[in-house]
């Protein structure tokens, strides 16, 4: 059973990101403020749910949340500031999109940087513990998947529609065969033998 809140503040926002381990595309974050007594029996960490269930939850969260924001940080920026900083930046950008100011922020994971002097807590595996982080993980994942499905049309040979940019065997084979695209993260180890790959 996921917990409603971590702090004693009225307006607590949960934030999480998706796409951190991908070889292509953005890292996407969401911030969600849920109403008190929010209940949903299916809501869980997005990684524990099927795509069908995530797609079912997305409109429910958007409708019932008091406020939510979603932001992408793209591959050029990931390459320039590194994936950890890009993940935190995406979370900051998603919180910035909230029209309701959170009084407290709970973050999935163990790394975060202060945002506008708002108190925060990082929670390892928070998306499996708190409703608002779980909701943020669903929005981050579904919005990122939508983006990957769109760029899949441009470069279907990488099958991003299926792998969403993650380092699957098929994705690596396509990189080996076709090289990289403008959507690939050049600072990532795209192929195991990359030290002798001419990028």
UniProtKB/TrEMBL annotation:
Keywords: Cytoplasm, Endonuclease, Hydrolase, Manganese, Metal-binding, Nuclease. Endonuclease that specifically degrades the RNA of RNA-DNA hybrids. One of its GO terms (biological process) is DNA replication, removal of RNA primer. It is found in: Cytoplasm. Belongs to the RNase HII family. A divalent metal cation binds at residues 16-17, 108. The lineage of its organism: Bacteria, Pseudomonadati, Bacteroidota, Flavobacteriia, Flavobacteriales. The keyword Manganese applies. It holds the Pfam family RNase_HII. It catalyses: Endonucleolytic cleavage to 5'-phosphomonoester. The keyword Hydrolase applies. This is Ribonuclease HII. One of its GO terms (molecular function) is RNA-DNA hybrid ribonuclease activity. NCBIfam families: PRK00015.1-3. Residues 10-199 form the RNase H type-2 domain. Manganese or magnesium. Binds 1 divalent metal ion per monomer in the absence of substrate. May bind a second metal ion after substrate binding. It comes from Flaviramulus basaltis.
